[in-house]
Design goal:
The protein has eleven helices and twelve strands. It is α/β, with parallel strands linked by helices. The chain has a single domain, classed as Rossmann fold (3-Layer(aba) Sandwich). The two termini are 33 Å apart.
Length: 328
């Protein structure tokens, strides 16, 4: 059995060409995903979560490029691979569940036709592939799966469509599944059901999972490791216990303070983080969070902070972080 992480991102930087000049969407991003592990990526809208996902999958837009770093998937660097090689990896070993299942599914083809078509690399008759598709729908707890194969996407509820997308993503039993905010359009009850489903399927198949979300509660419930992103950087990473109980970066602390589930007293106005996300075309000097940081010092506005190991497996990109700060 292979050893080491299934995914290791080392110093990844991604930029977009814009009318105003290069936009540095990701800068020196590093993280690892263990085999069979579940890692959550959390942060405000625009922090770079989706850009990171697209870089891993090789789905960069025409104006985007990887400016530096490595994306090691099972020891193989994905940066610079040709399109044909990436297509072979996607679907077989790399799969994704997108945020909006209605746009991820083709509205003019039945669910069964789509699930058969994505098995084009497999041998066997069309009937055998339909049977395999029905079995996968049964795994995601859809009643009467053979009947559903002949229906179209608009005939399902949002929760059922998301189950279909999960089934399609897992049909090839990939080594890594990326979930891009898959519960955003679901109500609280369906969110819980979807989390239980993902957890059970992940254990059964044994794949690693990257769960991208802005919902801290879902990350805490589902994942073992957490990566906190802000304005294109990883500002903190560590275990769920480290991040939620001993946050070392001011942004992580403020993000947790804004979580409605952690607010103990009734209030007319929910807490927010003052200020605006920085312009990634004209980056401020020093720490990227310093213009909004409540504890920033003079040096924070001029000096780029290093990645500090505050405890074993717990890192924060902050000048005020100290080794041992995150220890129990």
């Amino acid at each position: 059995m292979a050893s080491g992480p299934i995914l290791e991102i080392d110093g990844l930087s991604v930029g977009y060409a814009t009318m105003r000049g290069p936009m540095r969407a990701l800068r020196d991003v590093s993280m690892t995903v263990p085999r069979g592990g579940m890692v959550g990526i959390v942060g405000e809208s625009g922090c770079g979560k989706s850009t990171l996902m697209n870089a891993i999958l090789g789905l960069m837009p025409a104006n985007g490029r990887i400016a530096g770093g490595r994306i090691l998937f099972d020891g193989r660097d994905l940066v610079g691979l040709d399109a044909a090689t990436m297509r072979r990896l996607r679907g077989d070993r790399l799969s994704v569940v997108f945020q909006d299942p209605m746009t991820a599914l083709n509205p003019v083809h039945t669910i069964g036709a789509q699930m058969v078509d994505i098995q084009y690399r497999l041998t066997g008759s069309r009937a055998a592939k339909r049977a395999r598709a029905a079995a996968m729908l049964a795994k995601v707890r859809m009643p009467d799966p053979r009947h559903h194969l002949d229906q179209y996407a608009h005939e399902f509820s949002g929760g059922m469509r998301q189950r279909i997308c999960i089934a399609m993503a897992l049909m090839a039993e990939p080594d890594l599944l990326i979930c891009d905010e898959p519960t955003t359009a679901l109500d609280a009850t369906l969110e819980v059901q979807m989390l239980d489903l993902l957890r059970d399927l992940q254990r059964e198949i044994g794949c690693a999972v990257i769960f991208i979300s802005h919902h801290l509660g879902l990350i805490a419930e589902l994942c073992a490791q957490v990566v906190v992103m802000y304005a294109g950087q990883v500002v903190e990473r560590g275990s769920v216990r480290d991040i939620f109980h001993r946050p070392a970066h001011p942004y992580t602390r403020r993000l947790l303070d804004c979580d409605p589930a952690r607010i103990r007293e009734r209030a007319e106005v929910l807490p927010t983080i003052p200020g605006d996300v920085p312009d990634l075309v004209e980056l401020p000097p020093g720490c990227i969070f310093s213009p909004r940081c409540p504890v920033a010092e003079g040096r924070c506005h001029t000096t780029v902070p290093p990645d500090v190991a505050v405890a074993d497996g717990h890192h924060a990109r902050c000048l005020l972080a100290r080794p041992g700060e995150g220890a129990a």
